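Retro notes (design track)

What went well: tokenization of the new backbones is finally stable.
What didn't: we kept losing track of which sequence belonged to which structure.
Fix going forward: every design gets posted as structure first, then sequence, in one message. First example under the new rule, 118 residues:
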């Protein structure tokens, strides 16, 4: 009888641990937000306007003109503006590690869309 009670207790602890692990796992997935950003910022090389759109190969189609003029844009805090980033294949690096040509510092993929394009 004692052994049975011990087994039942051990089983209960195992179930509780499993549930706790499952909960932590679900929360971890939520925090990560899936496979990356839903939308990234592009700048039109013709009109110098900012467009927020799902991630896609560049140059991407500007929905306003129908032409392939969109390249990734990164925000420099010191410039207080956006800078166009060349397509990845042009220099073979992570576009998000592209540094501001003026301030020599990494730029951010997020920033105020009201800021100007430099
Ligand atoms: Zn800068």
């Amino acid at each position: 009888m004692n052994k049975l009670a011990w087994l039942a207790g051990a089983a209960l602890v195992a179930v509780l641990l499993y549930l706790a692990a499952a909960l932590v796992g679900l929360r971890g997935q939520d925090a990560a937000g899936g496979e990356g950003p839903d939308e990234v910022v592009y700048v039109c090389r013709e009109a110098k306007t900012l467009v927020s759109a799902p991630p896609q190969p560049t140059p991407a189609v500007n929905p306003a003109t129908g032409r392939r003029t969109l390249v990734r844009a990164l925000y420099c805090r010191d410039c207080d503006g956006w800078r166009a980033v060349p397509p990845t294949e042009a220099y073979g690096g992570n576009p998000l590690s592209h540094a501001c040509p003026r301030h020599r510092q990494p730029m951010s993929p997020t920033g105020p869309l009201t800021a100007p394009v430099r």
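Added context from the reviewer: The chain is about 30% helix and 20% strand.
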